[in-house]
Specification:
Length: about 240
């Protein structure tokens, strides 16, 4: 992709070893990949472009020194990524806190252990880091630090994943960026997942570029985007929004 092409990026990367599809030998390999991916993202962004980056600090093992369960600890992925972004050249602007409210289940509570074991916190919130290439463009000035109360996507019904993706994010997250973009802008999601960013971009008439490594998720993206397009066309026929 040519340099200075994109006006914005919004994404939620695979969190280090949090899901079966996101496995790295250790935290260093994960951060190495994140650095190289977002160095390319930086190159392709225009001056003033904004990146919204969704990440969570969760409980896991860095696998760098202690390889047993005793190595489990709080993984400060947000802080690691802020350091990486600054090394690349991004300006760290703000941080939106995504408050999920009551989460779907208690499967991670205390990692299944009774006291006096470490009390592992529930995943009730996540970061949405606001970054820019150079000084943030005027049209993005209203994207500021705040607490966004956004319900997570309900994917598990009667023990079955009805969506087809393990970690979808809600449309309200890409909406924070896309609603401020102009018709000629292009938005990128380098970890497209279930296609949410492109679905939101299509609704606003914004061109999107999505990258998805998994062939299964690539086909899922196609299906979800097509379904949403057909749904929107049906609404348009009746003058509805």
């Amino acid at each position: 992709m040519d340099s200075d092409t994109l006006s914005g990026v919004v994404t939620s990367p695979p969190y280090y070893n949090a899901k079966s599809y996101s496995q790295w030998p250790n935290i260093y390999c994960y951060l190495y990949d994140m650095y190289n991916i977002f160095a390319e993202v930086y190159r392709t962004l225009k001056d003033g472009a904004v990146l919204l980056f969704n990440i969570f600090d969760y409980f896991d093992n860095e696998n760098n020194i202690v390889l047993s369960a005793m190595g489990n600890k709080r993984m400060i992925l947000g802080a690691y990524m802020i350091d990486i972004f600054e090394r690349i050249g991004f300006t760290v602007c703000r941080n939106v806190i995504w408050n999920k409210g009551e989460i779907q289940g208690n499967r991670s509570f205390n990692q299944g252990n009774l006291t006096p074991y470490y009390q592992a916190p529930l995943n009730c919130w996540e970061h949405i880091l606001i970054l820019s290439k150079g000084e943030k463009a005027q049209k993005f000035e209203n994207i500021e630090s705040c607490v966004e109360n956004i319900r997570p996507v309900i994917k598990m019904i009667h023990g079955k994943n009805v969506l087809g993706h393990d970690a979808p994010y809600p449309q309200e997250i890409p909406e924070l960026l896309v609603k401020n973009m102009d018709a000629e802008d292009i938005v990128l999601d380098p970890f497209l997942g279930s296609g949410t960013t492109s679905i939101v971009a299509n609704r606003h008439g914004i061109t999107s570029v999505g990258i998805e490594k998994s062939e299964d998720y690539y086909h899922l993206c196609q299906e979800k985007i097509k379904q949403r397009t057909i749904f929107q066309l049906s609404f348009d026929q009746f003058g509805l929004t």
